[in-house]
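Students often ask why we bother predicting the structure of a whole assembly rather than each chain alone. The short answer is interfaces. A chain on its own may look different once its partners are present, and contacts between molecules only exist in the joint model. In this exercise we take four input lines together and write out one structure for the complete complex. Read the inputs first and try to guess which parts will touch.
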Amino acid sequence: MDQEGSSQSPTGHGGLSSSVPSNSTEPVRSRWSPKPEQILILESIFNSGIVNPPKDETVRIRKMLEKFGAVGDANVFYWFQNRRSRSRRRQRQLQAATAAAATTKGAEDYQHMTTMSMHHPYSNSESDLGFGSCSNSSPNYFFNDSLSQASSFLLSPPSSSSSSGGCESNNG
Amino acid sequence: MDQEGSSQSPTGHGGLSSSVPSNSTEPVRSRWSPKPEQILILESIFNSGIVNPPKDETVRIRKMLEKFGAVGDANVFYWFQNRRSRSRRRQRQLQAATAAAATTKGAEDYQHMTTMSMHHPYSNSESDLGFGSCSNSSPNYFFNDSLSQASSFLLSPPSSSSSSGGCESNNG
DNA sequence: CTAATATGAATGAAGG
DNA sequence: CCTTCATTCATATTAG
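Now the answer. The structure tokens for the assembled complex follow.
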């Protein structure tokens, strides 16, 4: 198969500035491929408790991500939506596995369950439980960053202190 | 796009000595490798017309496959998902090629894929289309099997019946 | 050992 | 929100 690790051609998505991929030198990426920095930011926000950012917040997040590569509001929205779904699914799966492992009811279902071990390329510890960052003040979700450039950027927000407060995100 | 998350052993072996080489590199931590019997079952189901089994059916299929080796709902779901995609992809490829050959435009303005070689020694005809087996009765998809143990097992399915037709899986 | 292929798994995007 | 499609990544297996 064709394996492309480094892609330096982000399709001008976002539906704003960038135009159609008329570049003949660009392998034209069909869909958006979030950069590591962008993923870091998105994960930070998600882990901060903002699992369902409102429209206002989504736009701001997009602005931040744009610094590291072309991205649109829709991409951000999709990302959070998929992230939420996957998180919930993961949680349910883990819960079901744990429960099944401890079941042993001995009624009629004698189906033994093998050890649950979902292999993960990256140690994805989904610990988004109990988000205490539910303050309707400044949405500075970053504090546990790890990237260099990302952190540098995160320390210099666009002077926008407008917070939309979002304990329970509700997009319309 | 994981629908059901139920993964068991990463190596995908029923708990016996794996056929993995004596390499000291990763003997474990692999992806699920469906056993021939499992593949037979899955193919039978797929060819039976159940190309998109609902959740209930997926669980049941997983139970059947578990008899032949560790497998999770997710694996079954992935299998069907990939099967569908690949079938469609295959058809589109062939169709495109045929159309291109019949067009006789004399201009190769059509650019598809990057490096998709289509020099296949055998005609990869899935011939799985136009399945008129659209009856919402018992889901006894097996009838044209060839395996020994598999067939033996297939003749003793669980008393669970009432599946979702399989014509058009639409649940939500 | 390296290249190519087959296939399971992950993710972005879209529909309902 | 949940399900589904299409694309891509990663790895196992096979060919050279």
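Check your guess against this: Confidence is low (pLDDT under 50) at residues 2-27, 108-122, 128-135, 159-172 of chain B.
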